[in-house]
Amino acid sequence: MFELNCSGVIPGCDRVIRAESQAEVIRRAVEQAKQMGVPSITPRMMDAFRDGLHETAH
Fold first, then answer.
1. What's the average model confidence in pLDDT over 13-22?
2. CA distance 39 to 15
């Protein structure tokens, strides 16, 4: 299981995004950002998603 705390990555987001794969966490984070009104996903934001992603013991 992988997770990303989107606080500090997506403005105004306080969710923790969890999924079975890193790719799915990133996909969900991109979708969350769009839902929160982020007009485009910048390379810096993608780097922040990757940097904040970590594997959990679940």
1. 95
2. 19
